[in-house]
Amino acid sequence: MPQTADDMDAVAVRTWCSLALEALGREREAIDAINVYPVADGDTGTNLYLTVESATQAVEAVFAAHETGTTVPVAADAVRAMAHGALIGARGNSGTILAQLLRGMAGVLADGHDADHLRRALTRAAAAARQAVAHPVEGTVLTVATAAAEAAGRAADDAGTAAVARAAYEGARTALEATPGQLAVLGRAGVVDAGGRGLVTVLGALVEAVSGRAPERTYVAVPATVVPVPQDCAEGGPAFEVIYLLEATDDAVDRLRTRLDGLGDSLVVVGGDGLWNVHVHVDDAGAAVEAGVEAGRPYRIRITHFGADRVHPHTEPVQRAVVVVVPGDGLRGLCKEAGATTVLARPGEPPASGELVDAIRRAHAREVVLLPNDAELRHTAAAAAEQARAEGVRVALIPTRAAVQGIAALAVHEPDRSFDEDVVAMTAAAGATRYAELAVAERQSWTMAGICQAGDVLGLIDGDVAVIGEDVPETARNVLDRMLAAGGELVTLVLGEDVPDSLADELEEHVREGYLAVDTVVYRGGLQCAPLLIGVE
User: Fold this and answer.
1) pLDDT more than 70, % of the chain
2) pLDDT tens per residue, range 457-471
């Protein structure tokens, strides 16, 4: 039942989420139909629904934890759960912005849930959303959110929570109806902003949650039926939408924003306290994922191709090849069996760009996917790709940083699908794979894990020393435990030439006993491979 108390306590937050999800479910298709900005891909309503669904599930989990007792959660628990659920489940440009709006509100409502706190929460939310968008545009959900906050601020000082919520709703609705006059693409299509309409729907649910009465939905500028998207609204722009969750520091995210802003548009980075949701539209999906890898640990990577009309399509099947840099003969054989052209990386002698260009030429393909499998080869591989493109070859460089990422990408390679779809799938597989390797310290030195002595076994995770051990089995187990603590479904082990098969058996058993539903695959790397390479997908 709707909340009737004039208060934003935990029950009201729960009711708000439930009503918002129900309302977005009713209006999802109509909102999808008017989605022409920033990309006319017809999914804004769906993305908002999925974002609120995640927020609702998080709030329900908080209440479920109290079922055995006689108390209900406090408001702070509910609003923080709502914000966190929206953050980890945000979909699309609109869902990501909504997650930041909810996070901004939660930061205030966690300290109090009366009318004044709601008023300040809406103001904080609108400001936080604008800060999260690299290039704010008027006539969008940002405009609607600002109008809602300003209207709430104009409510009488003695107004209750329901009155403040209603003022915000009315202000948002008025602003929504004005969006076609603020953004040319909306005016040409004859629609209001889809994200703004979704926010009005969410605010309408808030009114009902705190007052017990749903507001009249009379915003006539919103068409109730599906409308065709004009062709001029659907053309141009980057080819891919890239979204991922990212564990990173504030400083690293500041650098990430700058880099992603140079790669594409529709950049929105939301979150804080070490966890972020990153959204951007780019032509080079691999570069966007690589930027996340450099900033921290990206996961739940989603890459969406906007459609063949936004890229250079190949409608007929074409010859395609994969060129892979490998660190050992064993992996070389494995990749050749999978149909790839290989370049062997000799210890201390990384391949030059000329070797990579020669490998691309040997592949005799019109389309080539290049997997460097080493962070140090990024610029070398980019130079080789540019030279091959100048020779008429279509090259996609996926910035794999380790051999196990290359294996993951190669495993999902399907030459029968379109080039863009294949690159998207391979990039996502590589980006979802954390990597580690074992090495033997040659001298005493300082590391991220402390001081190591010559002969110590070092466990490097994502390029940094994370574990110092006395032998390979113990160090490998510790590295696996650290990696699997963050989750995983598949462990890949690549054994060096001098490593016995018994180590693989021991590590497989360790994973099987400690981590349910995690599979393990084992490969032989050969002579030049490190003692052990580890991948976790």
Assistant:
1) 91
2) 999 998 889 999 999
Beta bridge partners of 64: none
pLDDT in tens, 11-38: 999 999 999 999 998 888 889 889 888 8
Hey, what's the torsion of the CAs at 168, 171, 177, 180, to 10 degrees?
Answer: -100
Residue 191 token pair = 């629609």
pLDDT of residue 68: 62
Cα 439 to Cα 505: distance, rounded to the nearest angstrom: 20
Please tell me what DSSP assigns to residue 310.
Answer: G
Reading the block at residue 225, the tokens are 């039926």
Distance of CA 314 to the CA centre of its chain: 28
Identify residue 336 by its one-letter amino acid code.
K
Alpha helices in 299-402 (DSSP H): 329-337, 353-363, 378-390
Q: Are 78 and 59 in contact (CB under 8 A)?
A: yes
Model pTM? 0.64
Tokens of 8: 């934003």
- 240-247, strands of its sheet edge to edge: 264-272, 275-282, 240-247, 297-305
- Report CA-CA distances (Å) from 425 to 130, 428, 430: 32, 5, 9
Measure the CA–CA gap between 270 and 253, rounded to whole angstroms: 10
Q: How confident is the model at residue 332 (pLDDT cuts 50, 70, 90)?
A: confident
- DSSP-derived letter for residue 349 is B
CA 356/CA 176 separation, integer angstroms:
53
